[in-house]
Amino acid sequence: MAASEIVIHQMLAEIVASYHPFADYLGYQEAEDGFIIHYQGTNGQQYMVIDTQGNVLSDTTLGTTRTLGALAVGAAILDAMFGGSSR
Questions:
Q1: Would you list the DSSP string of 1-51?
Q2: Tens digits of residue pLDDT in 63-76
Q3: pLDDT tops 70 at residue 20
Q4: Quick one: which of 57, 50, 49 has its CA closest to 81?
């Protein structure tokens, strides 16, 4: 597995953990305009759709999408993926 793929897996797993603390990250697939993140929740396998801006567009677990939090997480992902400012 390439280093970039490992980093993407880690960042997407953190998104799942922040939105669904009792779920297990299963993986992702690239979509035309973002990612589909798969996770194992209490109701079986679920997924979240995130666009290229980092916005959570859809989450099959109802009532868990937090728009403002999604923007912050999305911005952090994009910053890390595209070599944002170093600290």
A1: --HHHHHHHHHHHHHHHHH-TT-EEEEEEEETTEEEEEEEETTEEEEEEEE
A2: 544 444 555 666 66
A3: yes
A4: 50
Burial of 82 by CB count in 10 Å (0-12 exposed, 13-18 middle, 19+ buried)? exposed
**Which residues, in sequence order, are CB contacts of 48 under 8 Å at separation 6+?**
15, 16, 19, 36, 37, 39, 56, 58, 59, 60, 65
Cα 49 to Cα 35: distance, rounded to the nearest angstrom: 6
- How far apart CA 25 and CA 87 sit, in angstroms, is 28
Alpha carbons 53 and 69: distance in angstroms, whole number:
13
The greatest distance separating any two alpha carbons of the chain, rounded to the nearest whole angstrom, comes to 40
Rounded to an integer, what distance in angstroms lies between the CA atom of residue 55 and that of residue 78? 11
